[in-house]
Each structure stands twice: as structure tokens, then as C-alpha cells.
Amino acid sequence: MGNLCQTLAGKKDGAPPVWLMRQAGRYLPEYRELRQTQASFLEACYTPKVATEITLQPMRRFDLDAAIIFSDILVIPHAMGQDVSFVRGEGPQLGPLQVPRLKYDPQALASVYEAVELARLAIGAEKDLIGFCGAPWTLACYMVEGRGSKAHDGVRHFALSRPQEMEALMELLVDALSTHLVAQAKAGASVLQIFESWGGACPYGGLEPFVFGPTKQIVDRVRLACPGVPIIGFPRGMGEHLVDYVKKTGVNAVGLDYTMNPEAVNQRLGKGVPVQGAVDPQALVVGGEILRQEVQRYKKAFKGRPHIMNLGHGVVPNTPPKHVEAFISYVREAS
Known about the structure:
- The chain is α/β, with parallel strands linked by helices.
- It has one domain (3-332): TIM Barrel, CATH 3.20.20.
- It has helices at residues 3-8, 29-35, 41-46, 48-61, 75-79, 110-123, 136-145, 153-161, 163-187, 207-225, 242-249, 262-268, 281-286, 288-301, 321-332, and strands at 66-68, 84-87, 91-94, 128-134, 191-196, 231-235, 253-255, 275-276, 307-308.
- Helix 9 packs parallel to helix 10 and helix 14 (288-301) runs parallel beside helix 15.
- It is globular, with a radius of gyration of 19 Å.
């Protein structure tokens, strides 16, 4: 059992384990070099040896406690039959959504599970390996709107004007995502994370049917199939609904975004619930004393609670790799 799993099981003493969302990616020169050999982002995700190599790159550079498999949340709509592509400089582009034509094919993601197996063998038993997926609401945002969005007017309109199709989409996603997470766990992932990246865009009336309920179903199904694998939920932007998210979804731990007040979270959240995060990624870009102070602030806020040090979102491309090394050293040093 790695340090991450130990913390998720309730360990509170010593320095918190550390890993970073998007720790494998564009800020690393070796990643950029390897990506030049691939025709597309999806090709890199679907080529097991390449996905494994990218997963391992930050583990070779830094003293991280966990690797996260190199993949993307949008492999699920792709495996359901929706067109998905990644346009350089613009991000993901999805084809028109036709809910009745969606059909999940788990075999389409066999290469992802092969990459998990390869990464598990490579990192050894002392480090944890994280598998992941996007949450149903977050994937619906992309699938309905066809790309990333700030306001998410399109998916909210879809949910209100076509409720039966939205309900059918949620059911399809729950089935596919549950299967996907279980497959990753059985391939060797010791921890799973559910990214609710657009949770803050869900209207209050939609929280139960689109966020809490579907995520709870996924957690229950995964726990039934893989009872020993802990699940972290990352409900980005949900603010005051964080406590309800933890209670109503049943996740083992909750990731915080950088807008959350750590002291307030510590007071409101149930005793003993592990938390993850939530240093501002821009503090990692700036580095130096600013970064050290941010790390110490979170260590102090969550002293006495199981805590995983991470960012409040992913590593951004202009992050100097040497700042990641410093970040880890600040986490390890005595408060």
C-alpha cells in the first residue's frame, strides 16, 4: 500500500503524500518531444507504450507518491460513438450528439487498460497508480455543447427542454463510467478519481439528478466490484455544495479547488474525511517563497486530518519543472 492509499485509509501523521493533476503533460520537454511522434492526442492515449511512457515521465523526474494514467475523460464519449478530436490551440471538439445512437463499447478502450497494466508493473508496489474518469454531468457538458464552455448555457437548455434525453444520457454515462473505472482498477489502479470539472456550472435544481445521484450510482457499482479501491471526487467550483457532495455521493475523499477556504472546509467537513489539494497552479508557476507559503498554509489548515497535497486544478503548460521539484520539497519539509 502506497502513501496515497494509506492517507485515504485514515493516516494523518507525517508529511502528506503528493501528486499533481496533469503532472504528465506540456510543461515537460520530454512530453513535448514524445508527442511530436504521435499523429494526434488520442493516438497517444490509445498507444499503450506511449501512454505508459508519458505516465512515467514525471515519476522519473520527481519524488511523487502516485502516478496518474495518461488518458483523457473524453475517451468515454469517443467509445460511445460520438466523434471526438483535439485541435491544437483550441482543445476538444465533439461531433453532434445523437443520444439514441450512443452505445458504449468497452473494447474500444482495451488499450487504456493495457497501459494501466504496464504502468502498474513499472512503478512498483510502493507507489500508487491512479485511474480516473469524468463525471456524468461534466461529460454531458462536453457531449451536448461539442467543446469546452464557460457558461454552459447549451447543456442547461438541453436538460430543461429535453429532459427524457438528458435522463437517458445520464443512464448511459453511469453504465459506461462504472465499467471504465472497474476495468482500470482490475488492471492495476490502486486509487480512482472522478473529475466533476464543470460541477460549478450545474444549477441548484440539477445537483441531485445530474451530479449527486449519478456519481453515487457509479461509486456504489465500483465499490461492489472493487471494494478495496478508494475513490476521490473532485467537484470543481461547487463551493457551498461541497459537504453535500461528499455526503450524497459516498466518495472516500474530496479534492478541493483553489477557490475554497481550507480552514472553513476543515470546520465544515465530516471528521476524518480525507481532503486533497488545493494550491493555486499559478503559485506553482511563480514558485519561491509564494509557493512555500501556499504549501504551508494547506499543511497547517489540514493538520490532524488525512490530507493529500495537490493543486486546486491541473499543472499549466508554462510551469517550470524546477518549481515542481521545489513544491515537493516544501511538502516534505517540517512545518
